Amino acid sequence: MPRISKEQMQSLLKLYFIMGSNNCRIEPELVLQQAIEGGISIFQFREKGTDSMAGEEKYQFAKQLKSICISQKIPFIVNDDIELALALDADGVHIGQDDGSVKEVRKRIGDKILGVSTHNLEEVHSAIADGADYLGIGPIYTTTTKEDAKKAQGTTLIKELRRIGIEIPIVGIGGITSENAAPVIENGGNGVAVISEISLADHPLENTRRLLNTINDSFI
Ligand SMILES: Cc1ncc(COP(=O)(O)OP(=O)(O)O)c(N)n1
Ligand SMILES: Cc1nc(C(=O)O)sc1CCOP(=O)(O)O
Ligand SMILES: [Mg+2]
Predict the structure, then answer these.
(1) Sign of torsion over alpha carbons 85, 26, 148, 214
(2) pLDDT (tens digit, 9 = 90+) per residue, 87-145?
(3) 151-175 pLDDT, tens per residue?
(4) Which of 92, 151, 192, 210 has the lowest tally of Cβ within 10 angstroms?
(5) Structure-derived torsion over alpha carbons of residues 29, 195, 208, 161, reported in degrees to the nearest 10
(6) Which residues are 95's β-sheet partners?
(7) Substitution candidate for ligand 1 out of 94, 105, 141 with most atoms within 8 A of CB
(8) CATH architecture label of 6-218
(9) Catalytic residue flag (residue 117)
(10) 66 among known catalytic residues
């Protein structure tokens, strides 16, 4: 399989759902199934933080979620854990600035999808040069989901990157809901990434549909 094209990546980023066991109030499998039914375009397995799984338990859980994604043709991305992504033959990985060398990870995963978190122009240029397929930019708004999240930055960086002609696919992340997703798209994002808006919803299916409607309306 060749590297994913810019156009394919842009469309996959439209509604990016991220989740681990500690993000859910009900069975994670059920949340994921509802999110898929509601229209997510890509899924990231992010098992970290308080009470998160490790070892064989984490592997089996990831395998289960991957099989749900595969059966519904939703790409399955692994956060941070390159070994796990390779062991599961995941569709890709997402890494941040503290998760090792982008160049090294690109070498290890071959043509799989590679997402990189960036917070400024220097990180953006390096990530692109080192082989990122897309950028995660955040936190757009205040979030309590990520324990070590930086200060909210709004859509300033996304807007600036588009202004200077950077075309790499971008997803905004952090504190995004159906009420505040529109500016991310209006300022040049190709999609939004969410955890709690879907994972903690009373009705994950409804929240997913609502988010997707907001995103679709914002592209016009
Ligand atoms: C799509 C997307 N964007 C950003 C992140 C954050 O990655 P990182 O900064 O490495 O933080 P952790 O998620 O590992 O805590 C992401 N996971 N996904
Ligand atoms: C995983 C993650 N990364 C962020 C970043 O800023 O890079 S913010 C974040 C948490 C997103 O969760 P929620 O949608 O519940 O706010
Ligand atoms: Mg990380």
Answers:
(1) positive
(2) 999 999 999 999 999 999 999 999 999 999 999 999 999 999 999 999 999 999 999 99
(3) 999 999 999 999 999 999 999 999 9
(4) 151
(5) -140
(6) 116
(7) 94
(8) Alpha-Beta Barrel (3.20)
(9) yes
(10) no
Q: Is 139 in the pocket of ligand 1 (CB under 6 A)?
A: no
Burial of 128 (0-12, 13-18, 19+ CB in 10 A): middle
Q: Cα angle at 157 between 151 and 106, to 5 degrees?
A: 95
Domain spans, the chain: 6-218
Which of the following is catalytic: 117, 178, 199, 210?
117
The C-alpha angle 31, 34, 36, rounded to 5 degrees, equals 110
Question: Quick one: pLDDT at residue 1?
Answer: 79
Q: How far apart are CA 189 and CA 169, in angstroms?
A: 7
**CB of 94 sitting under 6 A from ligand 1:** yes
Claim: this prediction has a pTM higher than 0.95: yes
Helical (H) or strand (E) element with 209 = helix 204-218
- The fraction of the chain above a pLDDT of 90, given in percent, is 99
